[in-house]
Amino acid sequence: MLLGTTILATSGTALAQQVNTGGDSDIVVTASKREENLQDVPLAITAIGNERLGELQVKEFQDVVKFLPSVTIQTLAPGFSQVYFRGVASGENANHSASLPTVGTYLDEMPITTIQGALDIHAYDLARVEALAGPQGTLYGASSMAGTIKLVTNQPDTSGTYGSLGLELNSITSGGIGGVAEGFINAALGERAALRLVGWYRHDAGYIDNIAGTRIYPIKYINDDGDLVDDPGDEITQTNAGLVEKDYNDVDTYGARLALGIDLDDDWTIRPTLMGQVQKANGSFAQERSTAVTRKLQTVQYNPERSDDKWIQAALTIEGKIGSWDLTATGGHLRRKTTTESDYSDYAYFYDAVAGYASYFYDDDGNQVSPNQYIQGIDRYKRSFAEVRVASPADARIRFIGGVFWQRQSHNIEQNYIIDNIADAITVPGTDSDIWLTKQLRVDRDYAAFGEISFDITDQLTLTGGGRVYKFDNSLVGFFGYSDGFSGSTGVAGCFGPPQISGSPCTNLDKSTSDTDFIHKLNLTYKINEDALVYATWSRGFRPGGINRRGTLPPYGPDTLDNYEFGWKTNFGPVRFNGAVYQEDWNDIQLSFLGANGLTEIRSAGIARIRGIELDLGYRAGGFSLNLGGSYNDATIRRDFCAIANPQFDCTIDPPGQTNDLLAPSGSRLPVTPKFKGNAVARYEWPMGDLDAHVQFAVNHVGKRRSDIRTFENGIVGNFKAYTTADVSVGVKGEGWSAEAFATNLFNSNGVINSAVQCGESICGDPDGISNTGGVFYDNVIRPRLVGIKVSKDF
User: Fold this and answer.
1) Class assignment of domain 14-794?
2) CA-CA distance, 64 to 79, in Å (whole number)?
3) Of 511, 666, 663, which Cα lies nearest the Cα of 591?
4) What is the mean pLDDT of residues 507-513?
5) ∠ CA 294-300-303 to the nearest 5 degrees?
6) Maximum Cα–Cα distance for the chain, whole Å?
7) Banded model confidence at residue 461, pLDDT cuts 50, 70, 90
8) What is the pTM of this model?
9) For residue 513, how many other CB atoms are within 10 A of its CB?
10) Domain ranges in the chain?
11) 792/795 Cα distance (integer angstroms)
C-alpha cells in the first residue's frame, strides 16, 4: 500500500479518496515541499485524508500504522513508540542516550521526532497524513533515513465562519468504558485573515488487570567454602496488595490547537500556530508472560506505573513570492516533558537470585532492607528548527527547489533508580534513596544545505537530481552510576570533575562526536500518458552518529540506506493499480543491545539488505469501493554480527583480555517487521431517503516477526506470531450531521507488537532456570475489541 500513489490508508488508493472529494481525483500533497498532484509525484507515498481518518476509526499513531503495509510500529505505552518503514529495524531499545529513530515525523513543516519516538498526537482536524517510504534524506535530512511521516493540519479558512462537534462512546471487551469529545471552529476575520481553534478530550479505557502476587527475595551469604548460598529463614516477602486493580491502564488525552492565517497581500501569507497536548497514562500496557500469570491481559506489578506526557509547540511559516519564485521561511520550537514511574522489581529479584545483591542493601543501622527497586524519571526535551527554501515556477521545463536547514534538540535526562530506606553511605549523593542515578544532557545539532533540480528532457521524460550537504554535532554530558560507597569503580568513583548538569553529584561523562558528509538522489520518470507513469529512483538516507556513554567504548558513526526502486502509477477507468519494487542496502547499522550492567551499547557493525515489493489495487463503481494493499519485505543481515566489533568483522578474533561472540550469523532476518503485511477495505454507500448510508468492512494481517536480531536472545523471547484483525462500521449522514456504530478488532485478536524484559534477556528471561520461577516477559498487545457509537454535528 505505501506505493507510488496511494492516497488512503485502507489499501491507500487515491480512488478511495474520491469518496471524500466528490469524485475529484486531483489530490494535492506536499511531499516534495511544493504542492503537487499526488499522481504526478514519483515517490512511494500514501496520503490519508481527514474524513477517511474518521472512517477508519483513527485516533492515535498506532491506528494509522495499522493501515500502512510497509510500516511497522513498536510501542511500550502511549507516547513511547518507534516506527519503521520497509523492514529497516535492528531492534533498537530507544534508550535515551542511544540511536535516533530511522523514521522522521513532521507536524506541518516542523520535525517533531524525539529519541523516545514521535509525539502521540490525537488525530483530529488533520487535512491528511502523508507517509513517504524510502530514504527522504535530500529534502528531509537526518532521521528520515527509511521514510518520513507528515501530519498536515487544516489551515485557517477565510471563506467563512463554521465548525463541528463530535462525540463518541465506546467499550473495550474485558475492559472499561471510554469516549471522545472533539470540535473546532473556523472564524473568518475579514477577507484576508482567519482563526482556527481546535480542541479534544479522549478517555481510553483500560484492559490490563494487575492481579495479586507475592514475591520472596531470598537472602544469600558466602559460606566457608566461598559459595553463594541461601540463608534459610532469612527472607524478604513483598506483595502488591495495594496495587491490585482491574483495567488499570486507562489514558486521558486532551489538547488544543490555535492557528492564525493572514494574507498580507496577494503574494505573501503568514501562519503562526500554537499547539499543545497532555496525555496521562496509568498502569502497564503489556500482558505478562510468566509462571505467575496464566491468562491474557494480566500482569503482576509491585510498584506504581504511570506516565504524564506534556508538550507544547509554536511554529511560524511565512510564504511569498520573489518575482516568479516561491519563498518559504519556517521555524518553530517544541517543549516536551514526560514524568514516569516504572516497576523494576524483576531486575531486583533476578539479579538477587543470581548474585545475591540483596545482601548489599542495608539501612543506616546495618539492617538489610528489601531490594525492591523502582524508577522515577523526568525527561525534558527542547527542539528548535529553522528552514528557508526557494522554489522555481512549477511549470518551467527546468525546476529547482532548495534551501538551508538548522535544528537543535536537547534532552535533559533524569532517571532515579530507587531502593527505599537504604543507608546514606550507599545512596547517590543529592538524592533521597537512589541506588543509581542517570542525570545527563544530550544535545543533537544538525546543519544542512539541500536542493533538487528537475529537467523535462521531453514532454514525457523527466530527470531529477538532488543532494544534501550535512553536518551533525552531538554531545552527551553528565553523570550515571552508583555512589562511591557502593561501587569503587563506577558512578561517583569514576567522576573526573564537578557537576556540569544541575542535580548530578559530579561529572563522569563528557563526550561529543561530529561529522560532515553528502547524500544524493537520482530519479527518472516517464509519463506514458495522462493515466500512467513509471519511475526509477536511486537515493540515500542517513542517520547521525552518537555517543556510547560507557567510557571504554568510542562514539558510533552514522549509518546510511541506499535505495534502488522502480515504481508505477496507473489508472484504468474504475481501477487504479500502483506498485513499487525495491532493494535497500543498509550500511554501518547502529546495532544496539544491553551490555554489562544493563548499559546500552551501540556498534556501527552491520550490513543488511532489504528486497521488497508493495502493491496497491483500488476499484470504485457507483457507491462501492474495494481497496487491497500489501507489502513483502525480505530483510536480512549480510555480515556476521559480533559482540565486539573489529575491522575484519570476524567473530573468532578476540581482543586482548576479552572474548568475542557471534551474536547473529549472516542471513539472519532483521527483527520487528514481518515478511508480509496487508489489508483490504470494502465500503458501500447508498441513499436512504434523505440520508446517505454506508457500511464498511476492513481486514488487516501482520505476519510472523523476530523479536531480536540476536540468535540467543530471540530464542529466549521468541518470535511474534502472525495475527489478523477485522473492523466493521455502519452509519448514516444527514444535512450537517452524521451517526455511526463501529467495532475494531471485531474477533478480539491478541496480537503482540513488542516484548520486553526489565533486565538482560539472559537474566530476566532466566534461560538457565536459576530462579526456579522462569523468566518474566512483557508483551505489548493490540487493543482488544472496541465497540462504539459516534455522532457529529456541523454548524
Assistant:
1) mainly beta
2) 14
3) 663
4) 94
5) 175
6) 91
7) very high
8) 0.90
9) 19
10) 14-794
11) 10
